[in-house]
């Protein structure tokens, strides 16, 4: 999809394979969740974010050891306390789409773990929203 920017790449290594010798879905979902978490932290300006929902996932192809995959995300909605993204993963070697996730929802939390309004309505490509908690 043209609206998704592919910014994360992974090399499929032996530890990422299932018993069939193809990419283990759990490894891929971990990578997607990690990338979406980073995206949510930046877009919501808060280190305290949690995955609230992931829509149905349909694997349409796979990858084998040595393949390179790339993952992309795009924000499709900002809620009061949340951000909803669309994710896509493709195999750079075979040029095939591996999967698409229509909705990945993250919620911004306060120090007590309750939903916290973030005040944003659109994506920022600036780094102005990265939380500044380090001294």
Q: Architecture, CATH level 2? A: Roll
Number of domains: 1
**Which structural class is indicated by helix and strand composition?**
alpha+beta
Give the N-to-C terminal Cα separation: 40 Å
CATH class: Alpha Beta
User: Could you state the order of secondary-structure elements as H and E?
Assistant: EHEEEEE
CATH superfamily grouping: Hotdog Thioesterase
Number of DSSP-assigned strands: 6
Tell me the major beta sheet: 6 strands, antiparallel
CATH fold type: Thiol Ester Dehydrase, Chain A
How much strand? 35-45%
Helical percent range?
A: 10-25%
Mean pLDDT: 92
Please count the helical segments: 1
Q: What shape does the CA trace take?
A: elongated
> Unreliable runs, pLDDT <50, ≥5 residues?
none
How much is the radius of gyration in Å? Answer: 16 Å
Explain this structure to me?
This protein is α+β, with helices and mostly antiparallel strands. It has a single domain (5-108), classed as Hotdog Thioesterase (Thiol Ester Dehydrase, Chain A, Roll), CATH 3.10.129.10. It contains 1 helix and 6 strands, in the order βαβββββ. It has one helix at residues 25-44; strands at 5-11, 49-54, 57-59, 68-78, 82-91, 97-108. Strands 1, 2, 3, 4, 5 and 6 form a 6-stranded antiparallel beta sheet that branches. A hairpin with a 3-residue loop joins strand 4 and strand 5. The longest helix has 20 residues, at 25-44. The radius of gyration is 16 Å and the shape is elongated. The relative contact order is 0.24. The mean pLDDT is 92.
